Amino acid sequence: MGTRNLYLVFSRPPDRVSDDEYQRWYDIHARENIQSPGFVSTRRFAVTPSRGDGTPLTHLALYEYEGEQRVWREDLDRRIEQGQIQLPEWFGDITFQSWDCSALSDRIEP
Asked: What domain range is 30 assigned to?
């Protein structure tokens, strides 16, 4: 097993899209994403501010992957271009920020 990295995607659906509709679409979308080579797993979270100013972003998709981001990114882009991954008409209106995270240490557990 190689080193596992994280790809974090924080998002907020467009105002005109209900939370139920966003959840239904993102459940499918996350499963489609991890079919690309290198992905190990994905997990989705609701984001609630707990300290500080908070965040206008309300959802987090955490993707665990091995290898280089370039490999799965190119595969995802190709599959979207070929219509294998369907994006809703409101996809371009999703507010999001993403981060690629490289492990600096092994997992520390109690």
From this structure: 4-39+52-101
